[in-house]
């Protein structure tokens, strides 16, 4: 007998990314908050980190 293992096709899960927006308008995306925070600190802690869904 074949395994059903949870049923049919599933909708893909959304991916949450962290966007670092710098004062000059540059936007960079990171997969973890820690990466975005580290990049912000390297840039002088002047950016804004927000979440976005891809």
From TrEMBL:
InterPro entries: DUF7196 (IPR055620)
Name of the protein: DUF7196 domain-containing protein
Source organism superkingdom: Bacteria
Organismal lineage: Bacteria, Bacillati, Actinomycetota, Actinomycetes, Kitasatosporales
Organism: Streptomyces mordarskii
Domain annotation DUF7196: ranges: 1-51
